[in-house]
Amino acid sequence: xxxxxxxxxxxxxxxxxxxxxxxxxxxxxxxxxxxxxxxxxxxxxxxxxxxxxxxxxxxxxxxx
Length: 64
Known about the structure:
Elements: H1 3-33, H2 38-63
């Protein structure tokens, strides 16, 4: 693998990690404000997280 490929893969992983951290943090804030909506918030968080991971995985494969 070349250096630009490795840098690109690193940026993808960092971006995915930041995105998942933002999703988790925002979900926890929302649950703290409205505990009765925890189920809906968790469901949305899991769906968005799965889509984000799929996007990052796809980008890693296309970048190789």
